[in-house]
Amino acid sequence: MTFLSILCALLIEQLKPLRADNPIYGEIKALAARMEAWFNAGRARHGRLGWLLMMAALILPTMLIYWLCNRINPLLALGWNILIVYLTLGFRHYSHYFTSIQIALNSGDEVTARTLLAEWTKLDTVDMDAAEISRIAVEKALVTTHRHVFGVFFWFLMPLGPAGAVLYRVAEYLSRAWNEPEHMRNEAFGRFAAKAFYWIDWIPVRLTAAAFAVVGNFEDAIYAWRNFASRWQDEAVGIILSSGGGAMGVRLGNPAEKAIAVLPADAATVDSMVGSSNGETDALPGEEPTVRALQSTVGLVWRALLLWMMLLLLLSIAVWFG
Question: Which stretches are transmembrane (predicted)?
Answer without folding.
Answer: 49-68, 75-94, 149-168, 300-321
